[in-house]
User: What shape does this take?
Amino acid sequence: MSRRLRLLLLAAGLVAVVVVAGLVLLPRLAGNGGVNIPIGAAGPVELDLPPGFEASIVARDLGRPRFMAYDEQGVLFVADMSGGRVLARGLRNAVGLAINARSGELWATNNGRDWLGDDEPPETVYVVTDGMDAGWPRCHAGRIVDPDFGGEGACQGVATPAVEMQAHAAPLGLAFYDGDQFPAEYRGDLFVALHGSWNRSEPVGYKVVRIPLDETSSEDGRPAGQVLDFATGWLLDDGDTVPGRPAGVVVSPDGSLLVSDDKAGLIYRIRYRP
Assistant: This one.
C-alpha cells in the first residue's frame, strides 16, 4: 500500500497543518521481540525547534525504525538491526555509527551502564579507531572505575570519549550535517538522537541534540562547545509522559534532517525556513 501524508508540526507559536501529498511507505520491518515496545496510541508530537526550523512527518507505520541510510541513488533504507566488522572493544551498546567526512573518522554513540545512580556514568560518543579499547565493563568514559568489575589500573590505556552527555539519555543514531539547507553555522556539526532514559528517577533524553564541531582547530572536527538541544517535545511538560522516542537521524539529499521515532513509528523531516 502506498499513500502520501505530511503533518507539519511547527513550534514557536506557529500552527500545525496537515498536507496530503505522496509518500510511498516502506514495508513494516521485523523488530527485536525481546525489547519491542507496543506502539499503542503513540503518535506525532509537537517538536520545539530553533527559530526558523519546521518539522513534518514523511513516513508512518514503520514499526521500530531505528537505523536509516541513503544509498548512492538517494534511496532511503530503514532497518531495525545491523551488523558490521569489529574495530574496537570495550564499547557498550554502541548503536549509532557515522563517518565524519571532514576527517574520515568513524564516530559511534555509546550507552553507559545502569545502576550507578542518576548521573553516572555519562553517555558518550567516541572516535573509533582500530584496536581501540573503550573500557567496558571495567572503566567508563576513560576515567570512572566500575565498582563491580573494575580495580586498580582499570582505566589504564582506555580511550577518552570525544563527547560526554547526560547519563541514561540513551544516544542512538548520529549524523554529521553535510547539507546546505540549514544555516551555514550548522555545517559539519553532529546531531545525536537521545532515545530517553528508562530507569532514572527523573526522565532525561527524548530529544535530538546538536554538538558544534570546530573546523578551525588543530584537532580538526572535534567538539567546539556544549551539547545543545535541537529538537525537543517527546517528553511532555509533566516530566513523565512520552508519546515518542527519537532513534535515528540522517541528512537527506535535499539538506533536511530526518529523525525516526521508533515508538510512534514515524519519520520526521526537519527543514529550515528563513
